[in-house]
Amino acid sequence: MIKFGVIGFGYWGPNVARNLDTLEDSKVVAICDKSPTARKRAQQAYPHVKITGDAAELVESPEIDAIAVVTPVWTHYELTKAALKHGKHVFVEKPFTSCVRQAEELVNLAEQKNLRIMVDHTFLFTGAVRKIRELVDAGSLGKLYYYDSTRVNLGLFQHDVNVVWDLAPHDLSILDYLIDKRPEAVVATGQTHLNGHEDVAYITLYFPDKIIAHVNVNWLSPVKVRTTFIGGEKKMVVWNDLEADEKIKIYDKGVHITSQQGVYNLLVNYRSGDMWAPRIQPGEALKQELQYFIECISENKQPFNDGVAGLRVVRMLEAATKSMQKRGELIEV
Amino acid sequence: MIKFGVIGFGYWGPNVARNLDTLEDSKVVAICDKSPTARKRAQQAYPHVKITGDAAELVESPEIDAIAVVTPVWTHYELTKAALKHGKHVFVEKPFTSCVRQAEELVNLAEQKNLRIMVDHTFLFTGAVRKIRELVDAGSLGKLYYYDSTRVNLGLFQHDVNVVWDLAPHDLSILDYLIDKRPEAVVATGQTHLNGHEDVAYITLYFPDKIIAHVNVNWLSPVKVRTTFIGGEKKMVVWNDLEADEKIKIYDKGVHITSQQGVYNLLVNYRSGDMWAPRIQPGEALKQELQYFIECISENKQPFNDGVAGLRVVRMLEAATKSMQKRGELIEV
Amino acid sequence: MIKFGVIGFGYWGPNVARNLDTLEDSKVVAICDKSPTARKRAQQAYPHVKITGDAAELVESPEIDAIAVVTPVWTHYELTKAALKHGKHVFVEKPFTSCVRQAEELVNLAEQKNLRIMVDHTFLFTGAVRKIRELVDAGSLGKLYYYDSTRVNLGLFQHDVNVVWDLAPHDLSILDYLIDKRPEAVVATGQTHLNGHEDVAYITLYFPDKIIAHVNVNWLSPVKVRTTFIGGEKKMVVWNDLEADEKIKIYDKGVHITSQQGVYNLLVNYRSGDMWAPRIQPGEALKQELQYFIECISENKQPFNDGVAGLRVVRMLEAATKSMQKRGELIEV
Amino acid sequence: MIKFGVIGFGYWGPNVARNLDTLEDSKVVAICDKSPTARKRAQQAYPHVKITGDAAELVESPEIDAIAVVTPVWTHYELTKAALKHGKHVFVEKPFTSCVRQAEELVNLAEQKNLRIMVDHTFLFTGAVRKIRELVDAGSLGKLYYYDSTRVNLGLFQHDVNVVWDLAPHDLSILDYLIDKRPEAVVATGQTHLNGHEDVAYITLYFPDKIIAHVNVNWLSPVKVRTTFIGGEKKMVVWNDLEADEKIKIYDKGVHITSQQGVYNLLVNYRSGDMWAPRIQPGEALKQELQYFIECISENKQPFNDGVAGLRVVRMLEAATKSMQKRGELIEV
């Protein structure tokens, strides 16, 4: 039985706490939030759990095995570091930290102490992403050409980060999970219209083997879009996360250029076959993820979405922001 | 009655010829195509019109007032130049020319000779684009924030140009038409997977007043997408050109940041009102455009989609290709 | 403060209880369910509320002012009758009762005792239906032509009622609310494929003034559909309840037959104008409904969705089933 | 080489003529239309073909082998009869005739004269319907439960027939083609709002083995819908004919009721698997159909869409109209 302290009981924290409390091998023993209103809600939901406004009480408690950090990104580094120092495993919200340096330090600390860090890239535990990973692993898509995602909506404006740090971590973690290579360089463009942070941004990532990835994030879109195109030599995928039932469509379509005897004898063949929407495994992604975290702790194994994976995402976020601020300068990752 | 010679009777040429032949104040007197098959089709459709394989016969004919150049882009410069030299007005396919230098030369030549050039940016004559222009002109959208277009499909691979020169001229001409400012700089990224030309590309254009434009073009998409988002301070537009009936949706949505007393006191107000899909004027855009060309010739007035407009688009295409080849280097326009 | 007893804590009961408990002028003082599992869930959610398996304890309790009956339809009559007899107001799930006779008896009993019955036709309190009612009331649609609804999905098969009693009450109550006339007659057809109750059914209702209504209900549809077309002389409405944002679209479309001098001189004019999707008032419909029930009790006024309205729906359901069993025989309502 | 006379050169006639003229084994030798405008159009398109306003010239011409009757329904009987009497095979527009008696007489006459009649149920030659037929033939859908089609749009109002005779022939011919049983009885309801003919109608057909079919046709719908649901024991099909690419979706979904030990022990299992959109064979359906007609003439074989098939559809149309006029009375077919 892993005993958890949950720091942060705002929007997402209650979901983390609920799952940790209902899973078989874990329970929540303390919840911390700076806001009295949040503490009141926590107390009602968990009458028998210790509720406090002081994170140190959790981090230092000998009764607690692991800490879930479900707070704004600028607090992740301090809280995670303190928890690790006191020998706790840490489940931390995405993005992992505010900069690469912090993430590197935490990764090293966890390694020294032989503790687990898991960064909450929940999407990696959805049926949709798992299904796409299955297709990639099985070689069904063939050589990858591109990953192109649009993730836009109206708001929610954050006051401490730009739209890249808010929306792009989803795609960057998915990219990192699906593509077995690491990006070489990033080019990003964007614009700041309202509150001093970029609210519209376009990120291109260059990967080896001519794989290209693009992420379109926008807080000023009148409609919500969550659509990703993945092009491969053999098959192509359209993933629309807003569809209730047919989130993933796999197209047996492609182009084959058979010969090129001089520029005007290019023979282009288009293949257009069936479309197939596999059934997606239902179930709450966060529950699967936390179950997996408990397993990793119990069996002393490294999660694939560990601090190093979180660091890779932070590296891309940092590079994208830097590139954007220099109007698209190529930043090596 | 303006007498036309049509050079090029491949895919689009027959539409140009048909409209020119049925409009009240113009007629087609000669058609030229290098391909015997195309000439045979032309002869069947226009039994009483001169059909030839030699463009010089049209360009030099004293009987002809104006030439329609409906051929691949790499031939536009020579054909247009010859036509202008012989005193003909020219209607020329988009993109205007293969490079800025050629376009500049043609614009100057036309000016010296007091002849009209019209570049066939057909989209500017569709009901959809005219309606959006109306909204912009009336100030309905408020200050513009962004223009974001996705124009992707499977093929048709071109053997002489990349996907930017094939698909982006539509968006670049629309941008040029809708936004009353000129772009300052371009950043483009892309990748070449199949035939030596980029088949996936992402273009960002920086405009004054923080307007940002983005165009996503791709020849390797399993599904066809033609969707443009236009964000303004007061209203936002989603234009889906593949919709049969409701191509344009206008959203009374927005964000208003009322005060910013320190970063944590940011007050963000979201406005979410009605959506409205105005009826789009039906009718063939090309017909409207050619009618307008005839008017411009007859009344000796400059079309808004003249050689100078065509040159602006070529300038953006050239800058985008240059940026793309340097992996996103900022290119001033 | 109205004190409520809630009978039935299965799928819908918890929603009723939660709203009654959080509204300002009501509270839940007792919950009853025959299932020990349901009682356990109730006890966890409401630690300070009396939980019992015996409905009589609620119905007879002098402490309770009103009863919410959230149980299967075949129990409504007995429970509502008992509650009324003991002087309680009753909020009862739809459909009101299993047959017309029962509904009539309950309506009479409530009238004698001057008690309120509200039948839970929740849809009447959604933003979408309220907006359509507004349009009808304002005369925006003009003379009504038809109401045509498709309400199909896979399952959930009921073991005690057919698909008409399960899915059609929604449409029949909406019809009853929107159309100020009463149906003259019903024709229904259907078929029984699986469990002895009709799982596919088509209901036509003839109204005065040539208004016709049609309801398509089906438990064997591979996809869920919730779409209603409402045709009027001036405007037409398409309501797609599965759309997240633009549930209601109002079309400025119509047909006008101007003259009919002999059958071959019929002049048909089609009008095709803008489409408009008004913003729908958000908020939980059930909360609005229960708030209204409390008002009706406090102010001693008759709700519009009272027992008489519930009776009208039961009358249509009974007629539809009768017609269906006689393969479409016309049944006067 | 089969020589054709085409009677009727309005909306559909030009398509029939074009195909007959370009197919290898047929040619058009004469075209007839009562309208001078139509004759002028015909003359321009077919300069070397005889154009006339007198159908007798075609019907009696010894040079002509077969007649295509592409005229309003009320003229089909007379023209087809005259053609058969003069020994011509006949390709006739749907619906075959205005009443059962006429269709029976023509079928008998063709049989006596050993001539072919083909009724132009073009939909049976589309890739979509052929694919569904393939699935049915292969037993992929399992036992059929229902066929449910919605075919609605704004107009086009006909002055001589109601909406059933205008729009339902498509579905009735498809039903007749897909289901290997004949309908037992029809129930139809509808309403007349504008020009004296029913403009909204709902048709139920009862087939043996509990198969039920339903067709919803409406001339007063603000949006065009062409959607058909086909439910089977093993698989279910949704055919949306307005989709450009994925017209047919096959759902591996179903319901299985495993045991029924008393009404409350009903065990309902829902199966929800993949969805699959097979590639539809492209190509013009009318061309395929006319090619097949020529084959049937040449090889002296009976087409499956012969006069008898056309008669079955007319029988259903007649029964539906009769039922509708008696407000849903059950009419045996």
Largest interface in this structure: A-B, 57 and 57 residues
Let me know the number of strands of chain A: 15
Alpha-beta content class of chain A: alpha/beta
H-E order of chain A: EHEHEHEHEHEHEHEEEEEEEHHE
Main sheet characteristics of chain A: 9 strands, mixed
Oligomer: homotetramer
Give the CA-based shape of chain A: globular
The fold-level CATH name of the largest domain in chain A is Dihydrodipicolinate Reductase, domain 2
The value of Rg of chain A in angstroms is 21 Å
The CATH C-level name of the largest domain in chain A is Alpha Beta
Please mark out the parts of chain A with pLDDT under 50 across 5 or more consecutive residues, or reply none: none
Properties at a glance:
homotetramer; 333 residues; alpha/beta; Dihydrodipicolinate Reductase, domain 2; 2 domains; 9-stranded mixed beta sheet; 6-stranded parallel beta sheet; 15 strands; 33% helix; 30% strand
Brief write-up:
The first copy, chain A, is an alpha/beta fold. Helices cover 33% and strands 30% of the residues of chain A. In chain A, the strands form two sheets. A nine-stranded mixed beta sheet of chain A has the order 14-13-12-11-7-10-9-8-15. The first copy, chain A, has a six-stranded parallel beta sheet with strand order 3-2-1-4-5-6, sandwiched between helices.
Written account of the structure:
The structure is a homotetramer of 333-residue chains. Chain A is of the alpha/beta class. Chain A folds into 2 domains: 114 residues, NAD(P)-binding Rossmann-like Domain (Rossmann fold), CATH 3.40.50.720; 178 residues, Dihydrodipicolinate Reductase, domain 2, CATH 3.30.360.10. In chain A, strands 14-13-12-11-7-10-9-8-15 form a 9-stranded mixed β-sheet. Chain A has a 6-stranded parallel β-sheet with strand order 3-2-1-4-5-6, sandwiched between helices. In chain A, helix 5 packs antiparallel against helix 9. The model of chain A has no long low-confidence stretch (mean pLDDT 95). Strand 14 of chain B pairs antiparallel with strand 14 of chain C, so a sheet runs across the interface.
